[in-house]
Amino acid sequence: MGKATQFIVGLIGAMGAFCLGAVIGWSGPVETEVKYLGAYDFYPDTTEWGLVGSLMTLGAAFSCIPVGVLIGKIGRKTTMLSLLPPFFIGWLLIILAVHISMLLIGRFVVGFCGGGFCVAGPMYTTEIAEIQYRGIMGCFFQLLIVNGVLYAFIVGAFANTLYFSIACAIWPIIYFLMFMWMPESPVYLAQKGKTEKAEKSLRFLRGKDADVSGELKDMSAEGQKEATSTGKLLCRKVTLKGLFLSIFLMIFQQMTGINAIIFYSTFIFQTAGSTLEPRFSTIIVGVVMVVSTVISIVLIERLGRKLLLLISSAMMGVSTLIMALYFGLLMTSGVGWLALMAVCTFIIGFSMGFGPIPWVMMAELFAEDVKALAGSIAGTTNWLCAFIVTLLFPVLNLHIGAAACFGIFCGFAVAAFLFVLFLIPETRGKTLNEIQAKLGEKKES
User: Fold this and answer.
1) How far is the C-alpha of 272 from the C-alpha of 339, rounded, in Å?
2) Sign of CA dihedral 106, 116, 382, 268
3) What letter would DSSP give residue 426?
4) Strands (DSSP E) along 18-130, which ranges?
5) Within 10 A of 272 (CB to CB), how many other CB atoms are there?
């Protein structure tokens, strides 16, 4: 019963990721209608539309550090609930926009709120999990992001912009009404010395008759560490090593091109001359993404984090190389199916490793006293890279061509493979103390 409860609470806790996925997937399906068919009273030009796509990532980058501070002060659950009313307001601005500035502000706001869940969500799901389920539950965040993207692709393919936006706006309300009944993270409660509440939370998660004394003792011991200044916490060797690893995992997650492929998937298929209608091609991409993430959840505690990351970067490298060759040499050869196959291979590779695992490891690599702040720095890096990719991809595509863009993504995938091979430690099945010891040893040697 405890396992089922943990999984249910973890999935509900990670629903902010579904809301974020809908935000990420929104811009692709509405592009033609907004730019050319009068979905609003204004017609964005290429630069303005680039901002519509990329401002949500900038909003997300701005939210990670404030949310990292808040989850340490008021708790994981309270912080996530407080993000939901402004999330809904952001969608209202998008729905009611009468000027491009309203649309841009709305995109920034929904990005800001969605990005906050990137720090709080994985932390909450891994903190409520027993060690043997931590990897699986850490993947719930990515699973719900890709389901949110798929939801956007499907609804966006058949509904006009207004109804599509309303269908996205209802999810923060649904999430609020479900998550308000869930327990606070027992780790946070133990850190704050609220032992009774931490025990109550653990019993809710593990089952009334479960022996939670050992877990509670470990959590309380972590919480009772003497208070240290933020600067000193971040300057510990083991924290710096964790930050280095986590930041580079986030950089590679974005710089291999995932957001360029999702945000501009419709455009990619149109340019590739795929015989499938672009909206159906993007739905296929969404389905592939969901299935691959489920496979990752099944494999993460069997194969471990490192092997999945290696497989992931190799698949992304091969597929971006094929895309570069396609756009460079083969576009007139009548093999439009090759672009769809390469994109699907990329999505499978990304979703099995570099999609979920950087978020899992972000929640695993740091001691409790520094996790919120260090995780928020890694999250900010992720979204700044996403902003750079989504803003520059259409510009670079115009000036140097798609072949060169995918060649750059391929180079990052090769670098990611080498980084994982030589520097990433395996964290599967290890306690926090064991992971910290492993990072410390590596630093000394």
Assistant:
1) 6
2) negative
3) P
4) none
5) 24
